[in-house]
Amino acid sequence: MRITALAIAAACAAIAAGSTFAADPAPDDRSAARGKYLAQVGACNDCHTANYIETNGNVPEGDWLTGSAMGWQGAWGTTYPANLRLTMARLTEAQWMAQARSPRRPPMPWFNLRDMSDNDLRAMYRFIRELGPKGQRAPAAAAPGVAVDTPVIVFEPKMETAARN
Ligand code: HEC
After folding, report:
1. Residue located nearest, by CA, to atom 36 of ligand 1
2. Measured from the CA of 80, which atom of ligand 1 is nearest?
3. Which of 37, 46, 56 is nearest to 128 (CA)?
4. Does some domain include residue 7?
5. For ligand 1, mutation pick of 44, 48, 146 (most atoms within 8 Å of CB)
6. CA-to-CA distance for 10 and 81, rounded, in angstroms?
7. Are 135 and 53 spatial neighbours (Cβ–Cβ below 8 Å)?
8. Within a domain: 113
9. Which residue of 65, 88, 108 sits with most ligand 1 atoms within 8 Å of its CB, as the best mutation to test the pocket?
10. What are the beta bridge partners of residue 73?
11. Cα 19 from chain centroid (whole Å)
12. What pLDDT, on the 0 to 100 scale, is given for residue 12?
């Protein structure tokens, strides 16, 4: 009797676990919901949404991916995370697919987009298109050595003196 009850409980748990898994987006899912998930776990908000890192991701979805005026400065000059809401608004899905995997300057991890499946890229396009255009264009990139009038994060590897000894 007890064994049966345990077996039933285990079966119920398995069914519950199974249904949770089934609700997760499948790799061939091109939906906007899948795109939202990819934007979140793919760290796009970390750079392309102002204050996302500073607030542990506590930025309303309506403000996501509107770009940032925080510059990233290194050997490549100064770059700004683009306003992806405006980027997607001006691109057809076919145009997005044609250029989504193009090389970009640091610190954009363009190789992460390069390695995404077509379905994942389409899902991200749908999600960002559904959010709709919002905000301003990010400041233009500056060449190395050119002064900018925004805050910057300097990408410069350093070795602390203590660590060298
Ligand atoms: C570490 C910061 C960082 C992360 C993380 C990041 N980006 Fe970027 N992204 C940038 C920067 C900076 C640029 C501008 C690069 C340049 O000027 O060449 C950029 C540019 C782009 C562009 C070009 C847009 C245009 O209109 O020129 C696209 C598309 C893009 N990112 C998509 C994404 C997506 C999608 C993700 C998440 C998978 C992501 N980025 C994650 C920093 C980042």
Report:
1. 44
2. 12
3. 37
4. no
5. 48
6. 48
7. no
8. yes
9. 108
10. 78, 154
11. 27
12. 43
Domain hosting 66: range is 31-154
In a domain, 92, yes or no: yes
Which ligand 1 atom is the nearest neighbour of the CA of 112?
38
Considering only CA atoms, which residue is closest to atom 7 of ligand 1? 108
Domain count across the chain: 1
Report whether residue 124 contacts ligand 1, using a CB cutoff of 6 Å: yes
Tens place of pLDDT for every residue, the chain, 165 residues?
455 554 444 444 444 444 445 566 666 789 999 999 999 999 999 999 999 999 999 999 999 999 999 999 999 999 999 999 999 999 999 999 999 999 999 999 999 999 999 999 999 999 999 999 999 999 999 999 999 999 999 998 888 887 665
Residue 99 beta carbon below 6 angstroms from any ligand 1 atom: no
Q: Is the CB of 46 under 6 A from ligand 1?
A: yes
* Residue in this structure with the two tokens 């930025």, named with its chain if needed: 59
The Cα 81–Cα 46 span in angstroms is 10
> Is residue 26 in some structural domain?
no
Locate 48 and state its tokens.
């392309």
